[in-house]
Amino acid sequence: MSTTTEAPQVKETTKTVDFKTIIDIKDMDLYYGTYHALKKVNLTIPEKAVTAFIGPSGCGKSTLLRTLNRMNDMIPNTRIEGLVDIAGTDIYSNEVDVETLRKKVGMVFQQANPFPKSIYDNVAYGPRLHGIKNKAQLDEIVEQSLKQAALWNEVKDFLKRSAFSLSGGQQQRLCIARALAVNPEILLMDEATSALDPISTLKIEELTQELKNKYTIVMVTHNMHQAARISDQTVFFLNGEVVEFDQTDKLFSNPSDKRTEDYITGRFG
Ligand SMILES: Nc1ncnc2c1ncn2[C@@H]1O[C@H](COP(=O)(O)OP(=O)(O)OP(=O)(O)O)[C@@H](O)[C@H]1O
Question: Which residue's CA is the nearest one to ligand 1's atom 12?
């Protein structure tokens, strides 16, 4: 019995070793004013996989996620030290254009935030901003993005309707389509399902399994069951530090650190 449960874990481990690192964080510290929110973070995130950040409220999950597309630039008095390298580029170097970075590293938030525009115009917004004007080309991008976000069949006959006419779950998939429309490499999801009903949540969870064939997904979740269900790697944070980073199977079944074990067995947090 124990042999059969262990066998797939070994296979998974072998597979993960083959993954190429796309995000490499070295000795990274982040301060909000004098508050030291992230402490000496060292982390490698593999491409074309789902990596989940878990940990108790206030441990720094969202802060770390925001550093990956420099959303923290918008927060006054934030200071960052160390290296955040994405696909070979130090994203905090002076030469980096933040708009180009955010095109490459898209983000989906806890609350779906479609623009007050039609479904079509929400998805076409990014491509238009990046200079695509040709109608046929835009039509193609909108269709492909909505298909990838598993929304096309539900909206294809109503593309000119307001995005606000959609349900919460559909709006969140529209936001995913909007992020995909500019052809990112990485998709950051900050508790993207926590405001959704179970069926919409399941749809987005299934979607992540499709999307990871093409994109790297990094997600913050409060829901450990969700992390266990859909992520390949899990990072456990506590008080601004990475306590443990491992294959999801391993981290949940045989954590190396006592603090991880205490958290996943519900002893705190
Ligand atoms: N803009 C900000 N200014 C000052 N402190 C902040 C700011 N944003 C977050 N913090 C602090 O940094 C710490 C980490 O916050 P963060 O939101 O990253 O945690 P989290 O793990 O994502 O929490 P939650 O699960 O509750 O969303 C917390 O102590 C928080 O109060």
Answer: 37
Ligand 1: which residue has its CA nearest to atom 17?
62
More confident of the two residues 48 and 14: 48
Q: With cut-offs at 50, 70 and 90, classify the pLDDT of residue 9.
A: very low
Would you say the CB of residue 61 lies under 6 angstroms from ligand 1?
yes
| Three-state DSSP state, 81 | strand
Token code pair at residue 8: 């797939």
Q: What is the pLDDT of residue 94?
A: 93
Query: Using CA atoms, how far apart are residues 212 and 116, in angstroms rounded to an integer?
Result: 29
Starting from the edge strand earliest in sequence, which strands make up the sheet with 50-54, in order? 105-108, 186-190, 216-220, 50-54, 233-238, 241-247
Cα distance between residue 125 and residue 234, in whole Å: 33
Q: If we measure between CA atoms, which residue out of 222, 251, 269, 258 comes closest to residue 12?
A: 251
What domains sit in the chain, N to C, each tagged with a CATH number?
48-65+98-264 (3.40.50.300)
* ipTM beyond cut 0.90: yes
Looking at the DSSP bridge assignments, the partners of residue 38 are 30
Cβ of residue 60 lying under 6 Å from some atom of ligand 1: yes
What does the pLDDT look like over 193-212, one tens digit per residue? Answer: 998 899 999 999 999 999 99
Our answer on whether the CB atom of 79 is closer than 6 Å to any ligand 1 atom is no
CA-based nearest residue to 199, from 223, 170, 179: 170
